[in-house]
Amino acid sequence: MSAHTLFQIISRRYEYGAMIITSNKSYVEWGEIFGDEILATAILDRLIYHSTTFNIKGESYRLKEKKKAGIQPASIRGN
C-alpha cells in the first residue's frame, strides 16, 4: 500500500469512526518510511486529531516467548 493510498483511506475515515493503528515506529520516522515528510505529516495530523495514543516500551512479547522456548531469532532488523 502506498503512502498516498493510506492518506486517502485515513482522510475519508477519520471523522466518521474509530480507527486503531499500530506501529513499531515513532512519529518522527514516518516521513522516512513513506518517503515524503509532507504526506507523513498530513497522515499523522489526521490520525492524532481527537486521538488517544499509547507508547509501550519494552521487549517484544514474541521475542521473549521465543527466548523462553530456547529459540534464537535469526536476526532483528534495525538493531
From TrEMBL:
One of its GO terms (molecular function) is ATP binding. Gene3D superfamilies: P-loop containing nucleotide triphosphate hydrolases. It holds the Pfam family IstB_IS21. Residues 3-69 form the IstB-like ATP-binding domain. It comes from the Bacteria. This is IstB-like ATP-binding domain-containing protein.
